[in-house]
Write a structure and sequence with these properties.
One of its GO terms (molecular function) is ribose-5-phosphate isomerase activity. Belongs to the ribose 5-phosphate isomerase family. The structure is a single chain. This protein is 26% helix and 28% strand. Helix 1 crosses helix 2. It is an alpha/beta fold. The chain is globular, with a radius of gyration of 17 Å. The structure holds ribulose-5-phosphate. Ribulose-5-phosphate (5RP) binds next to helix 2 and helix 4. The site of ribulose-5-phosphate has 17 residues, from helix 2 and helix 4.
Length: 222
């Protein structure tokens, strides 16, 4: 099975967590795109979705799925999103698609976080994937030095020759060389650094369920 087929498999499997009559939280990325495509088949059974990015909003709308403002919804029963890395406890690194801040907000609104990924995303320790951190541009250089003091190396994410600008008008640092053995403590610490909008460790908002695509089918981790 190709990676694309594994993504489609878990995107389809995530439908079982969508409650009829309830708004669903929708993440961002190529795996979530498969979920959105699958969701279109049952769109008449839900009032709509709260989206974590402009990209997902565009895809949802193109498929006729209403997109609701997060501020118009009190809580969500489920949030479906992908991940860049997942450890055995369900702690994740996210933000490869630069949508981490809104992803964390929608995850926080949701009673259950269902992570969908192909099994290559499972790791023993978080940190091999460059850690995305959304930052206020004026703080980027100072924050890069703070990550260096932790043993990391931070680079500003570039797109089309310019610093990438997120949906929130901010920049992304990608940090390599870290071993995040205590994700809860790491997330709490980095969140306090002035200029950090969101760190891409999802430990306090970890996955409740992971659906992993494997050649043998979907493996469910709880
Ligand atoms: C976007 C994310 C994505 O969920 C993450 O990058 C995984 O993406 P993909 O499903 O394309 O591998 O965090 O900000």
């Amino acid at each position: 099975m190709t990676q694309d087929e594994l993504k489609a498999l878990v995107g389809q499997a995530a439908l079982q967590y969508v409650a009829p009559g309830e708004v669903v939280g929708v993440g961002t990325g190529s795996t979530v795109n498969k979920f959105i495509d699958a969701l279109a088949a049952i769109k008449d059974s839900i009032p709509g979705a709260v989206s974590s990015s402009e990209a997902s909003t565009a895809r949802l709308k193109a498929l006729g799925i209403p997109v609701l403002e997060a501020s118009a919804v009190e809580a969500l029963s489920v949030y479906i999103d992908g991940a860049d890395e997942i450890d055995a406890k369900g702690y994740m690194v996210k933000g490869g698609g630069a949508a981490l801040t809104r992803e964390k907000i929608v995850a926080a609104m949701s009673r259950r976080f269902v992570c969908i990924a192909d099994e290559s995303k499972m790791v023993p320790v978080l940190g091999a994937f460059p850690l995305p951190v959304e930052v206020i541009p004026m703080a980027a250089a100072r924050l890069a030095r703070q990550f260096e003091a932790l043993g990391g190396s931070a680079r500003l994410r570039i797109k089309d020759g310019q610093p990438l600008v997120t949906d929130n008008g901010q920049h992304i640092l990608d940090v390599t060389g870290l071993k995040i053995s205590d994700p809860l403590a790491f997330e709490s610490e980095v969140n306090q650094w002035p200029g950090v909008v969101t760190v891409g460790v999802f430990a306090h908002q970890k996955a409740s369920v992971c659906l992993l695509g494997t050649p043998g089918g979907v493996r469910t981790l709880t």
